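Hey, sorry for the delay on this. The queue was backed up all week. Below are the sequences that define the complex (chains, strands and the ligand SMILES where applicable).
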Amino acid sequence: MRKTLPTVMISISESYELVKSQIQCAAETSGRNPEEIELIAVSKTWPISTVSELVECGHKIFGENKVQELEVKCPSLSSSLRWHFIGHLQKNKARKVLPLAETIHSVDSLDIAERINTIAHELGLFPKIYVQVNHVGESTKFGFSPEELFQSFDSLLQLDRIEIEGLMIIPSFDADPEKVRPEFAALRDLRDKLEKITGIKLPGLSMGMSNDFLIAIEEGSTSVRIGSSIFGKRKVIKSNQKG
Ligand SMILES: *Cc1c(COP(=O)(O)O)cnc(C)c1O
């Protein structure tokens, strides 16, 4: 049966503590060190006042998926925060995002990787990235299919300003998170294969959202991107994005 949080109001600090203890518990039960799992609080759609509540709890890493929102929130909040960009990045927006976000989780084509590299040169930056994978090869979703990734990996490695942390996935949604376990396991296997072929370490696996982060951690996630389990349910906004 699907477990849902009770609908009583709980504060952001309470849900934050709960999420952190769930991460710790999932890590420990799978024999992992909880410290190797980074929590990215996905603050998309939430106003600065809401984000500030979590900043007051001591949290520092936030994720945004829209350039306009990042541009508003990042300069308004403490400069000690670290911003990760998690949405599809258009080529003409890379110049705006790079000075604000230290990591881009959603590098979904060689084209955008090359663009990021060029802008990083111009701006004197060394951004960290994750390569987004879409194993199903669904054309409605962003990301490299495994075949494309094997073909493009050498070209990605030539890009000298970007540091490839590892791979990222947005799995298909299923109310039962057990159903997406194979997608997480497949991402880890793909990472292991790439490491073997290239001899390059790819330590990062950016996988796991509110509904499925426990399973993602059991399958090796090092970076969970969690929004609604911390901030509550977002109002549905129309998206012009694929997927
Ligand atoms: C919105 C979003 C999340 C967070 O989703 P929740 O289900 O609210 O935890 C994580 N990753 C990406 C790429 C997102 O767009």
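The chain has a mean pLDDT of 94.

I'll add it to the shared folder too.

S.
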